[in-house]
Design goal:
The protein has 13 helices and twelve strands. By secondary structure, the chain is α/β, with parallel strands linked by helices. Its cofactor is pyridoxal 5'-phosphate.
Length: about 375
């Protein structure tokens, strides 16, 4: 079997499995308990928070451990909007966001009367100037992703952050596809909220991060006073340890991993250069994701044939798997009538993929599409 759906989820590394197993067998106390078992658990939790904060170049008190990217996105968007609606009820986002952002914004609109401006790509891209032009006096929040999960396209986060320095609107960034791939320092980028998910960088599912600047926002979960009183619930210590180890490994080997994935993408495009295809990813896209289409070849049929041959790829977000809906990202880029919606697939690499695996994938695609 060959796995090329790393934008959906990534396998745990041996090191992550090892540290999680050690934590399971040696530390089971509640971090909020005052006895020795609790103190040992609390120390591990503090150590993990400090290590994550160092990678983000921030204060540990600004790191909140969550259940994943969806919870982090919901907490940042709902929490800030509902707590600060007296400042305005206008929010800016884009039409290519993950559904955990889009559906959250729809909820705020339908239930609380917020007005949402969804920016569409211009010539395939989102530009900071679009944010500038959409800002109003009553805009309180701008929410954009760092890297698109379906195309790998990188949004101009630094430029948007600079624009918002002179405005009351706070900046939320869904960095689920970015964290672990390249350095992400929220304060340097003027980001107020940042979401990340462990299973996108070889950590465990069910564990994530919310970076939150010193702002007032409502909590979604009420009960205890965990996570600086922002998220009630006993911490998932085993998952947090796995997340931390995965992030440390990515941080330590970041440049080597990035160069390896760039090489994988180069081999992939070189091997397929002889057959008719087009790319939906921009030239500046993160190399980990390639959205590619083959004219007059149905993507569902191609996926099924690849799966039967032992190759795992996808058509887009795993969160919409099993539905017949076309990609909302490609629809925003090309329109609802574009043939690309029926022809495009997503190949997503990680540093665990090998050159031989990529060549085998290309060989199989050429056998199928070249018939």
């Amino acid at each position: 079997m060959f796995y090329f759906d790393n934008a959906a989820t990534t396998p745990l590394t041996d090191t992550v499995i090892e540290v999680m197993s050690q934590t399971m067998s040696s530390i089971f106390g509640n971090p909020s308990s005052t006895h020795a078992y609790g103190r040992n658990a609390n120390k591990l939790l503090r150590d993990c928070r400090n290590q994550v904060a160092q990678i983000f170049a921030t204060d540990p008190r600004k790191i909140i451990f969550t259940s994943g990217g969806t919870e982090s996105n919901n907490t940042a968007i709902k929490g800030y909007a509902l707590a600060n609606q007296d400042k305005g009820k206008h929010i800016i986002s884009t039409a290519i966001e993950h559904h955990s952002v889009l559906h959250t914004l729809d909820y705020l609109k339908e239930r609380f009367g917020f007005e949402i401006t969804y920016l569409k790509p211009i010539k395939g891209q989102i530009f900071s100037q679009q944010i500038q032009e959409a800002l109003r006096d009553d805009t309180i929040l701008v929410s954009t992703m760092f890297v698109n999960n379906e195309t790998g396209d990188i949004l101009p986060i630094q430029e948007i952050g600079s624009i918002l320095r002179e405005h009351q609107a706070v900046f939320h960034v869904d960095a689920v596809q970015a964290v672990g791939k390249f350095p992400v320092h929220p304060e340097k980028l003027n980001i107020d909220f940042l979401s990340a998910s462990a299973h996108k960088f070889h950590g465990p599912k069910g564990t994530g991060i919310l970076y939150a600047n010193s702002l007032h926002f409502d909590s979604l979960l009420h009960g205890g006073e965990q996570e600086e009183k922002h998220r009630a619930s006993t911490e998932n210590l085993v998952g947090i340890k796995g997340l931390t180890q995965a992030l440390l490994s990515c941080h330590k080997n970041q440049e080597n991993y990035l160069q390896h994935v760039k090489k994988l993408k180069s081999i992939f495009l070189r091997e397929l250069s002889e057959i008719d295809h087009y790319l939906n990813s921009e030239e500046t896209a993160l190399p980990h994701v390639v959205n590619i289409g083959f004219p007059n070849y149905n993507n569902d049929a191609l996926l099924a044939q690849l799966d039967l041959s032992g190759f795992a790829v996808s058509t887009g977000s795993a969160c919409t798997a099993g539905t017949v809906s076309p990609s909302h990202v490609l629809m925003a880029k090309y329109g609802s009538n574009s043939q690309r919606l029926k022809e495009s697939i997503r190949i997503s690499f990680s540093e665990q993929n090998t050159y031989d695996e990529v060549e085998a994938l290309c060989k199989k695609i050429k056998e199928i599409v070249g018939k």
